[in-house]
Amino acid sequence: MTTGGGKSGESGESGMTVLRYLMWTVFAAALIVVLTYALPPFRTYQLATVGAYLCVTAGLTVLTGLNGQLSLGHGALMATGAYTVALVQDGLAGRGQWTLLVSVLAAIGTTTVVGGVVGLAAARLRGPYLAGLTLAVAVVVPAVASTWDETFNSDQGLSVVLDPPPGTVPFERWQAWLAWAGALVTMVALTVLVRGRFGREMRAVRDDETAARLAGVSVGRTQVLAFVVSAACAGLGGALFAVLAQSVSPGAFPLSLSLFLLMAIVIGGLGSLAGALWGAVLLVALPAVAHSVTEGIDAQRLEGNLPLALFGLTLIVVMLAAPGGIASLRPFRRPFARLRRKT
Amino acid sequence: MSGLVLDRIGVRFGGLVALDGVSLRVAPGRTVGVIGPNGAGKTTLFNVVCGFVSPTGGSLTLDGRPLRPRPHRLTRLGIARTLQGVGLFSGLTVLENVLVAAPATPGERAATHGVTAAAPGETAATPGKEVAPHGVTAAAPGETAATPGEEVAPHGVTAAAPGGKAGGRDRAMAALERCGVAERAGDLPGMLPYALRKRVALARALVSDPRILLLDEPAGGLSAREIDELRELIAGLSCAVLLVEHHMDLVMSVCDEILVLDFGRPVAHGTPDEIRADEAVADAYLGAAG
Q1: Which of A207, A213, A217 has its CB closest to that of B91?
Q2: What ipTM goes with this model?
Q3: Secondary structure class of A215 (helix, strand, coil)
Q4: A210 to B73: CB separation less than 8 angstroms, yes or no
Q5: What are A67-86's pLDDT values in tens digits?
Q6: What pTM, to 2 d.p., does this model score?
């Protein structure tokens, strides 16, 4: 089965549903706050990175898993968001903490527009042609950065001007809060979207375009909207990455990033928002594991390639053991299944 | 002229003439069959009505107004269609499959309901249709138990959701019940036997409460018993039906009139009895002697 998220599908605008989402969100937010106080700074920074990745993987799994559109270009959409934050922050430097919200919103806006343009083209393409188009988007980033190097400063990239966190909050903790605020908003928004009519229409289009048309669903509109939503999530993720790294450069958004994102959502469970969380965790954990392994055996030459190999290996193992991804494994599926039965 | 009217429709694919001068009227409440050998253009005719294929000649009108069909706007016009290959959404449950086609805005649909409800005279104009179902029901009493929904809502989904105010979920369940698959609402289509999948597809077409229902080989792959159930279902519909089918017994028993196509051209048009007696039809099917 390709779907994991929102199988029961029906949206409830009822108060109960809203209340339950609210409770989950508050619970998750509390957990993050506790973790940021309990973990050492570097782990907190990793936690923040998971949050930023989660925005992207959640959006990508909705696009690819639920709407059937493969994107190899989400790394580039992240870059769009990240560069927007860098430019807007630079322009509004020193005016206070609120500028960050403005630049993140600007990043989402810019990526939405770019996503709309790519989505319009993507909605006319299928299979390998769609992959080719999005691949081209991923490849074009360094070229754009060096062509307009007065704005984007070529390979060196831009630094992101950030105000110090309010009060005595350590920087990593502040970053983790920002990243997870974005991640939780993304997750709630996508959950509502996926469980409602639009989610059903996305999956209908994925399964049978002709039948979807005859059922009154505009296939092109659904595909473009799905791409725009997914792009906005990638833009938010990219913006958060700019905040975390405090710099943006083409090297931070290589083609392999897009491939990693895709592998992550497949391993996590395509089309499942819970799987997107697993994917985001793996995107941070596997390179870290690879790093500590190479440190232990003193093999610097492996360092660059080991994460990729580890990811490939994980992909193969997970696909053999659980073709539906980690989220489809029984111990992880149960709490969500119970959640749905109550609906 | 009310209903769907096809006037001298022609379709060419390059040098190939798929349809040539096909005229047909589907009046409200009537059941019209389209038959012909493989490749006669039956499905192409459906594709023209649905907007998948643009006609190279002729015109389409719906209730006297020119019709420029676009597939995803059809249900809003009151036209629904089933597909030859069933075409269910494999990743959606049976209920969700039907919900996709359930009208999004009840207000908009209420207007369409008005049209359906305000045409009682049309129903009276087709008395044969009203008589037929009872006869069939009586002939197959054993089947009734298998489709209890039909007994509850004999006049379709409209009766179950009069003002169009009922939620999409209620409408979808009513449509499933009518087609006798309500108890499988939570299953994925892949878990259902073929005959039930076809019923789900029918429920998905009926949930938009169409005025005109296009059925593309609904009996294909069904057993004799299942075809009897289908016959009852079609006969019990209050909307107009345009039926493409190879199963002659079914076509002859449910249709008010039949159009016969051969190589894209209309060969005969008339009541089932007239078609049975027509020599051109036999020629089309068996090949002209000599």
Answers
A1: A207
A2: 0.82
A3: coil
A4: no
A5: 999 999 999 999 999 999 99
A6: 0.83
